[in-house]
Design brief:
The protein is mainly beta. 6% of the residues lie in helices and 39% in strands. The strands form 4 sheets. Strands 5, 6, 10, 11, 15, 19, 23, 27, 31, 35, 39 and 42 form a 12-stranded mixed β-sheet that branches. Strands 1-3-8-13-17-21-25-29-33-37 form a 10-stranded parallel β-sheet. It has a 10-stranded parallel β-sheet with strand order 2-7-12-16-20-24-28-32-36-40, with helices on one face. It is globular. The two termini are 23 Å apart.
């Protein structure tokens, strides 16, 4: 369940994990130059002072009548880096939006994002991994499409809002041990594999309305300190709420449970739990 480190990068991590390494500054233009050359980007222990916009790495082409797309073939790998400016995959050219497609892996391990993070509308063919990273400003992954078997947001910490609305993950999605200090939304997101939030902490509103999960879904040992919403969500496989704490309202109105709903030893200190209109194929356990 905790296989969040990419095996392909295991040897690299051994080389860059030394905490005593002093970080040196790096310009985003230098990163974009490597991408333009089609080289793999492997950067560790750096401070990127200015904005990093992946949509500006290469000349975009027409995606459709409404927008352009930049296609990046390079593997992108950052470890233990600090991003002072914003990190984005979106820009505007003469009122026309530019989006980014990543043909390989998109990895930010143990990184510190001081500015906004925006990967809205991105398409990623490889693995997405933001494990152990800190988001100090707003982070958005709205409408992102990820085709890989596994995507990792393990042990992330967010200080502002974290939105992953209407996203599509063709494989498993891991949020184990994540800590959310502000509002979170996975509204209308579709996980075609498993979804794991085990041991996660939600300090503010958690919105899972109209979420769809095809594989098993785990909210074991999760703490919801504010309202949790699962309005009209669809769970196609078993969903687990074992040792879960609901400190405020929980809304499961019109939620579909097409397999087992398993709740055991969860905190009963719930203001209200609304399951009106919920659909159960099997009995709740």
């Amino acid at each position: 369940m905790r296989k969040f480190i990419l095996l392909v990068f295991s040897s690299i991590l051994c080389c860059v994990s030394c905490s005593g390494i002093e970080k040196k500054e790096l310009k985003s233009s230098d990163i974009l130059k490597e991408i333009k050359k089609g080289k793999t980007v492997m950067i560790a222990d750096k401070i990127i002072m200015d904005d990093l916009d992946f949509s500006l790495a290469l000349a975009p082409f027409a995606l459709n009548a409404q927008g352009l797309q930049t296609v990046i073939s390079s593997n992108i790998f950052f470890s233990n880096c600090v991003f002072i400016g914003k990190v984005t995959s979106n820009s505007i050219e003469k009122t026309i939006p530019i989006r980014t497609s990543f043909k390989n892996n998109l990895v930010f391990l143990n990184c510190d994002f001081r500015g906004n993070v925006n990967f809205d509308n991105a398409v990623v063919a490889g693995t997405v991994n933001f494990s152990k990273s800190v988001f100090r400003k707003n982070a958005t992954f709205n409408n992102i499409t990820v085709w890989s078997k596994d995507s990792y947001f393990v042990e992330i910490e967010t200080e502002k809002t974290f939105y992953m609305i209407n996203a599509l993950f063709q494989g498993n999605l891991f949020f184990t041990d994540a800590k959310f200090q502000d509002a979170v939304s996975l509204q209308q997101t579709n996980a075609r594999g498993k979804l794991l939030f085990n041991n996660a902490l939600f300090k503010k509103q958690a919105d899972f309305d109209m979420l769809t999960v095809d594989g098993d879904c785990y909210f074991n040992y999760v703490t919801f300190e504010a309202n949790a919403g699962f309005l009209s969500a669809k769970f196609m496989s078993p969903v687990y709420f074992n040792q879960t704490t609901f400190a405020a309202d929980a809304n499961f109105e019109n939620t579909y449970f097409l397999d087992d709903l398993k709740i055991s030893n969860s905190d009963s200190n719930i203001k209200t739990i609304d399951m009106s209109g919920a659909f159960f194929v099997k009995k709740m356990k």
